[in-house]
Amino acid sequence: KSDYLQEATYKIVKENSKMTIGLQEIAWGETFGLYPLDFVNGRNYEDPFISDLKWTRVPVFALNYEYLGEKFSAQGVVVPRPKNSKFPGKGDTFDTTPTNFAHLDREEMATPQLIYDSEFGGRLGYLFDLGLDVDLYYFYHRNRNLALDLKNATYFNGLPISGTLSPVFKQIHSLGLSSTYATGDFVFRFDLVNHFNRPVNDPDTYAVKYLNNMIGVFGFDFSTENKFQLGLQYHHDTFTEFYYNWISSQMSLPLFGDLIEINMFVFWGINNQDLWYQPTLKIYASDQLFVSLVADIIEKQVTKKAGSISSFSEHDRVFLEMKWSF
């Protein structure tokens, strides 16, 4: 993410409201690992196994108004000129183009136009007396996923031998809901979004289709006084004609006070081949020095249908992050 300035804003702060103008990242949603409601900013998908949003959100210039009352909250967002998400290029390690199409040329993504491609929406929230926090979301925006349309194709024995893959982007409506409820040591979380007429590639034919895409994540977190945390989530990703579902779990355990933290994230496909383990070791060496060592272990459940990451089962790796604060 080194090619991005993450934030440059001017803020007008009142007693119960705030207006933020400028380059920023806007966080929506409550769940971990996968973030179905976090779509105001484009994302960098060049490496799909970096799940930390501080590395993957693409900052945009936006007008962001927030109101926070005792029970009621509201937010309005306008993005005059959005930025495209970033995807793996042709032949890159995490390129998901099927083998039958991988040799074809790919067009560059068109740059969004000022005002004409503008995006807007908002959030309404309410905290009920029983402790249930509910938010409703709406956003009108360009689709954040990559769909490729085959143009000017020449076929031989039913397979394309020439042609061009053209990225498909269109303005779509997205409607979402999130909620949290805390009781004792448990916090229950729920994120749900429906993208209307989202362009996607059919998993069998690779033809572009415009389908309603509903994504839901429901789960809970459990924590103890010694800062041990355990989270469990169910993910469901439904298109008009097909669906996928997963279970994920996240655990963190501090050791030696706050010096070391061990994390484990697991992502398991129920009806697909996906299986991803991500152990993490964090070392808070001092107030200035932070070190993180992350491993990605990607397996394939061969008896099931292809998932979203199972094709990368031979790309295990280790990621080192070091941060020095002045």
What key attributes describe this structure?
single chain, 326 residues, mainly beta, 15-stranded antiparallel β-sheet, three-stranded mixed β-sheet, 1 helix, 20 strands
The residue-averaged pLDDT reads: 92
Helix/strand-derived category reads mainly beta
Spatial shape: globular
Helix content: under 10%
Helix and strand sequence: EEEHEEEEEEEEEEEEEEEEE
- Placed side by side, the strands forming the largest sheet appear as 1-2-5-6-8-9-12-13-14-15-16-17-18-19-20
The count of strands amounts to 20
**Treating each run of at least 4 consecutive H or I residues as one helix, how many helices?**
1
User: How would a crystallographer describe the biggest sheet?
Assistant: 15 strands, antiparallel
- Measure the end-to-end span: 20 Å
Q: Strand portion, in percent?
A: over 45%
Radius of gyration: 21 Å
Unreliably modeled segments: none
